[in-house]
């Protein structure tokens, strides 16, 4: 049960001049765990809330399973959108929220929801207003997981949880995804903890899509090179340099792009050390000064 | 969990190769599934599958339809041959270069190797 998401030339204006989203185009095949990465204010939440029919775009098109999602009953209950400080009514009890969610999503698994509530130590009788930030987050991810919606979106939803709860969430997410394959989108600016969960990554910056790529491939496109400054400079010719640092006669640079076997061989001969770059570091470099905009790539 | 020096799928493949060479995984033995690997290392199953793909491409593992992945009968022999071929370049040459830099005479190295070897034969 995989549903394709197609986004074409999507734009969203806050007012006449401020663009929250600017000409965003991509296609998600579905059935994968996607990472949507962007700095604060990059347009992640705007994009996701359009996918979830929480708001409508100003221009462009969204197709989910071939149809426009906005006010489309067939699509709306296929998409579960969990935000960090959601839409939960403060006077409701945990039990009421769970009941409401079970009515919303056709694939709801009540036993699974109970198990998660139990694990997160969320008392059914407690009112939402009496929950801590971490407990509210835990309730959000419980709903997201138990919804088993074909498209489940976690918009920084787990950031309020403490480390043990977050790790439990990652484990559950992976386990449940493997048992019930579906499209999962995790949006975050804190990447280190979750980067190994992604199959594909999209990076948004200032409302534009910087890149969409398979996570393993993206990781392989970044390299850190350290060695004597002259040799490093020579090596870097023709490569996209994301960052550089100098310490005495030693220089360290981060480059983006395939190095190729020939260049790698030469590096070793020249006394250079080539190391990997984490997704977190690549993300920081690619979104720092808009360097990545030349590398823009659709689908 | 991973050393971050090479892609995760490469490390998974290398781990399985090590297990085959050391005998932890025998010929025709079944390997854990990609999902088990994914859950254990907390990584995307597609990443784990990529490691398995490398190994099937090299003929180290083979797939039994609907059952899982198994170690090829020729896997250990192939891996040993590969490692022997790389041994002098990757291990001995590096050691010789390091010895030269820090001033250890070749004869000292030879003596040490003879000692080690002698110890093993007794």
TrEMBL record, chain A:
MF terms (GO), sorted A to Z: ATP binding; ATP hydrolysis activity
Keyword annotations of the record: ATP-binding, Nucleotide-binding, Transport
PROSITE patterns in the cross-refs: ABC_TRANSPORTER_2 (PS50893)
Record SUPFAM superfamilies: P-loop containing nucleoside triphosphate hydrolases
InterPro entries per the UniProt record, alphabetical: AAA+_ATPase, ABC_transporter-like_ATP-bd, ABC_Transporter_VariousFunc, P-loop_NTPase
Keyword Nucleotide-binding: yes
Protein name: ABC transporter
Lineage: Bacteria, Bacillati, Bacillota, Bacilli, Bacillales
Automatic annotation (TrEMBL), chain B:
Keyword Secreted: no
Keywords associated with the record: DNA-binding, Transcription, Transcription regulation
Superkingdom of this protein's organism: Bacteria
Any one Gene Ontology molecular-function term assigned to this protein's record: DNA-binding transcription factor activity
Keyword Amino-acid biosynthesis: no
Residue ranges of domain HTH gntR-type in the record: 6-74
Xref: InterPro entries: Tscrpt_reg_HTH_GntR (IPR000524), WH-like_DNA-bd_sf (IPR036388), WH_DNA-bd_sf (IPR036390)
Protein name: GntR family transcriptional regulator
């Amino acid at each position: 049960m995989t549903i394709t998401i197609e986004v074409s030339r999507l734009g969203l204006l806050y007012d006449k001049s401020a663009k929250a989203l600017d000409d965003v185009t991509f296609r998600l095949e579905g059935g994968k765990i996607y990472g949507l990465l962007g700095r604060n204010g990059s347009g992640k939440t705007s994009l996701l809330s359009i996918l979830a029919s929480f708001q409508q775009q100003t221009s462009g098109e969204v197709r989910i399973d071939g149809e426009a999602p906005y006010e489309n009953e067939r699509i709306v209950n296929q998409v579960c959108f969990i935000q960090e400080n959601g839409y939960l009514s403060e006077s409701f009890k945990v039990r009421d929220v769970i009941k409401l969610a079970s009515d919303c999503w056709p694939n709801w698994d009540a036993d699974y929801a109970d198990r998660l509530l139990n694990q997160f130590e969320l008392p059914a009788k407690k009112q939402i207003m009496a929950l801590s930030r971490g407990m509210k987050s835990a309730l959000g991810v419980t709903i997201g997981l138990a919804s088993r919606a074909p498209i489940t979106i976690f918009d920084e939803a787990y950031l309020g949880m403490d480390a043990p709860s977050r790790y439990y969430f990652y484990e559950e997410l992976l386990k449940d995804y493997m048992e019930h394959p579906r499209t999962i989108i995790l949006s975050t600016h804190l990447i280190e903890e979750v980067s190994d969960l992604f199959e594909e990554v999209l990076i948004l910056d200032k409302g534009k899509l910087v890149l969409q790529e398979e996570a393993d491939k993206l990781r392989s496109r970044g390299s850190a090179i350290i060695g004597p400054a002259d040799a490093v400079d020579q090596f870097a010719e023709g490569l996209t340099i994301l960052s550089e640092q100098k310490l005495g006669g030693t220089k360290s640079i981060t480059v983006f792009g395939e190095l190729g076997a020939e260049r790698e061989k030469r590096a070793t001969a020249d006394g250079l050390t080539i190391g990997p770059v984490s997704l977190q570091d690549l993300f920081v470099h690619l979104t720092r000064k808009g360097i990545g905009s030349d590398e823009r790539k659709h689908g | 969990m991973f050393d971050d020096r090479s892609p995760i799928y490469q490390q998974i493949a290398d781990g399985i190769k090590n297990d085959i060479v050391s005998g932890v995984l025998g010929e025709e033995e079944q390997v854990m599934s990609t999902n088990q690997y994914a859950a254990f290392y907390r990584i995307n199953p597609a990443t784990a599958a990529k490691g398995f793909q490398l190994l099937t491409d090299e003929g180290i593992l083979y797939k039994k339809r609907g059952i899982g992945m198994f170690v090829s009968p020729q896997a250990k022999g192939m891996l040993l041959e590969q490692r022997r071929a790389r041994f002098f370049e990757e291990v001995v040459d590096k050691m010789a270069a390091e010895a030269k830099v820090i001033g250890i005479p070749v004869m000292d190295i030879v003596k040490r190797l003879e000692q080690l070897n002698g110890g093993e034969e007794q």
